[in-house]
Amino acid sequence: MNGTEAWYGSWRHVFKLDPEKDISDEALEAVCMSGTDAIIVGGSTGVTFENTVDLMARIRRFEVDCALEVSTMDGAVPGFDGYFVPIVLNTDRAEWINGAQTKGLQEYGSFVPWEETAAQGYIILNEDAAAARITGACTALDEDEVAAHVMMADRLMRLPVVYIEYSGTFGDMSLLRTVRETAQGGARVFYGGGIDNADKAQQAAEFAHTVVVGNVVYQDLAAALSTVAAVHSRA
Ligand code: 1GP
Prior knowledge:
Pathway: Membrane lipid metabolism; glycerophospholipid metabolism. InterPro entries: GGGP/HepGP_synthase_I (IPR039074), GGGP/HepGP_synthase_sf (IPR038597), GGGP_HepGP_synthase (IPR008205). Its EC number is 2.5.1.n9. The protein has 9 helices and 8 strands. By secondary structure, it is of the alpha/beta class. It has one domain (13-232): TIM Barrel (Alpha-Beta Barrel). Strands 1-2-3-4-5-6-7-8 form an 8-stranded parallel barrel, surrounded by 6 helices. The two termini are 19 Å apart. The model has no long low-confidence stretch (mean pLDDT 96). The structure holds SN-glycerol-1-phosphate.
């Protein structure tokens, strides 16, 4: 089993859009019609029910798959094609491993569409990323430590997704290779962070099952769009 049968199992390229950030109708149309496999809605700060519903409704005008990364209960909005629930693996703050998640399930557990919901085991490796600061992630991991976190996620916890998160900076591709080689238990490897051109997208696509492109959408739309074909060109 390699996870390809999952609802996100064929995604090679994904744009991640932040409900807190403004995007014009033209830019959103270009992103949704770009040929990307899906849009993930999610952000580390400022996510509310209102801005999440608003962005979902605008994306819904297009046919592209659209999933929500549920990082706060405020932003848990029905109507997406799928839901990701992040679990941070490299923190010792239990709140981000199972605390917030169990609180959410206590309140909303009976509404969760389980068939379209998947946990993501996050390994956050950029110490300057907002997610690293908020969750107290231990980002200074060597290769063996990262591999151990991957085994924990993929083999012991059997999480369906391992997310290598470098948000804001381009990561270490030899480490990503190790992650992919280690994750043989069925987890899909997502990579996100600092992809701002086709070349970086292609490098990440060599090892990640799914390449996530975020910030550059808001900084250089043409460069963002160029990452789609770059990823898809790597079988
Ligand atoms: C963020 O992994 C994504 O959660 C993408 O990162 O914004 O740096 O592209 P960037």
